[in-house]
Amino acid sequence: MVFTDIGDHACTLRGYPGVAIADAGRVINATRVLNGFRGDLPPLSSPPLVTLRPGGSAYAVVELRLYDGQACYPTGAGAFEVTAPNTTSTIILGTGITMGRHGICSSLEVNPVAPGTFGARVGT
Description:
By secondary structure, the protein is mostly beta strands. It has one domain (2-115). Helices cover 0% and strands 39% of the residues. It contains no helices and twelve strands. It has strands spanning 2-4, 11-14, 18-23, 26-29, 31-32, 49-52, 57-59, 62-63, 77-83, 90-98, 109-110, 114-115. A four-stranded antiparallel beta sheet has the order 4-3-9-10, with no helix packed on it. Strand 9 and strand 10 form a beta hairpin.
């Protein structure tokens, strides 16, 4: 996920966005992890303070892993909900998110915000 400062003044972000998939009354919240599954993310020892100038961006990686034999939430489609760090307003980024052959397992994770747009395709 990429967060962009669309205001006229600099802002700061620190910590984790709220990430959830909601489906038919169930809410699956992402676990906050400092360093996730991907080996190519910069290693962190604590969530960084990110200062964004107007037009500047920060990103947070959301990861999902499915394991055979692990207790999973049922399959289906849900809404992908995000709350930016330092805010209380949740937005829905998409509906009809497919939860996969086994459903969503307990390994839905979100990493803290970091400066830049690592791996993002901005503007598409």
